[in-house]
């Protein structure tokens, strides 16, 4: 369901791997009986209503069912916990010119990437709450 990478890609305005995320949330929210039926039918290939509702813009994330919101929220929190520092620590380092300049160019770039990733994850959390 998640693909080769095993991760979902979230952007500033939308989920970039919306189909994978949508299917994963649906499957994880199913009862055992619903899942058996899903497997027997090889998914929802003919369900046009699902396709219409699969667009996961940031606005659409806030309208997810509560069970899907909770699954996604838990996933985002686990991802944030996997980082060695929090968003504020990254922001403080970016704002501390002296400490920032002591970092190598590669460390500075990694800091910017981590900071951007964490900002997106925090934005998603806000949309889900």
Can you give the mean pLDDT?
85
CATH topology-level name: set domain protein methyltransferase, domain 2
CATH A-level architecture:
Alpha-Beta Complex
Distance between the termini: 25 Å
Helix residue percentage: 55-70%
- Total number of distinct structural domains: 1
Determine the structural class based on helices, strands and strand pairing.
Answer: mainly alpha
* Low-confidence sequence ranges: 48-53
How large a portion of the residues is in β-strands, by DSSP E?
under 5%
Q: Quick one: overall form? A: elongated
Which H/E pattern describes the elements? HHHHHHHH
- Assign the CATH class: Alpha Beta
| Rg over CA atoms | 18 Å
| Tally of separate helices | 8
What is the CATH superfamily? Rubisco LSMT, substrate-binding domain
Counting DSSP E segments of at least 2 residues, the number of strands comes to 0
Mind describing the biggest β-sheet?
none
Oligomer category: single chain
Textual characterization of the structure:
This protein is mainly α and 129 residues long. The protein has a single domain (18-128), classed as Rubisco LSMT, substrate-binding domain (set domain protein methyltransferase, domain 2, Alpha-Beta Complex), CATH 3.90.1420.10. It is built from 8 helices and no strands. The longest helix has 24 residues, at 105-128. The model is unreliable at 48-53 (pLDDT under 50).
């Amino acid at each position: 369901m998640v693909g080769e990478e095993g991760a979902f890609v979230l952007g500033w305005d939308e989920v970039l791997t919306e189909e994978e995320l949508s299917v994963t949330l649906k499957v994880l929210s199913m009862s055992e009986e619903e899942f058996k039926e899903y497997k027997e039918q090889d998914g929802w290939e003919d369900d046009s209503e699902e396709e219409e509702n699969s667009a996961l813009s940031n606005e659409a994330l806030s309208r997810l069912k509560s069970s899907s919101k909770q699954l996604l929220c838990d996933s985002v929190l686990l991802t944030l916990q996997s980082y060695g520092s929090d968003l504020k620590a990254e922001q403080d380092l970016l704002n501390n010119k002296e400490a920032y300049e002591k970092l190598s160019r590669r460390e500075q770039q990694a800091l910017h990437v981590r900071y951007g990733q964490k900002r997106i994850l925090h934005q998603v959390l806000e949309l889900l709450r």
